[in-house]
Specification:
Length: 244
Amino acid sequence: MADIKYRRILLKLSGEALMGSQTFGIDPVVMDRIAEEVRAVYELGVQISMVIGAGNIWRGSQGAAWGMDKAAADYVGMLATIMNCLLLQEVLKNKGIDTRVQTAIAMPAVAEPFIRLKAMRHLEKGRVVIFGGGTGNPHVTTDTAAALRAAEIKADVILMAKNRVDGVYDDDPNKNPNAKKIQDISFDQYIRQGLRVMDPAAVALCQESNIPFIVFDFAHVGSIKKIVQGEEIGTLVGAHSGGK
């Protein structure tokens, strides 16, 4: 473990990342690749927790289009995240990785309720813990759920896995070819510049808890392992120096 920079991580995956080239649901090839990436880090002895979105199954815009109440639509999304968690748990277990799912919405037939000390104990015993159901409250994003869980379990870092986005830029690189990638940046600078890679409420939680987050392109194989071993990949937000 001497060459490990981050010993307890929280990996945040969007639901869209599970779709691969599909327009809905889960691509088995992508799910297997996620499991392999997790296993590579797991074998280093790193304590791994995860939060997964639900955009591959349900988006809030769908509920709005149907005239659903925002809170009701959010609860559907929370349930969808739990479906993703349970599926990923099975894939990880099939690869020999001891895994637990904890949910903010109680459903004891399929998962444990979220209990902070129990989650930390699982991590200490070398189990991967996947947090489902967001925070259990509507009007809250899974980014904020990730920041909250990271603070509760005292994670060293949040890894924000993005699809084809290799970091934070000072402008939209799709619109501005001269946009520059930021290597690292402090929380204050991130907020001052109005950057929006993570939900502002989640950023505030990270800043208050002094937990940095790294935005990186999950499409690059081996990125998670390289990050926990100290390689500078993506953009580090919450750096003490910042602004490179």
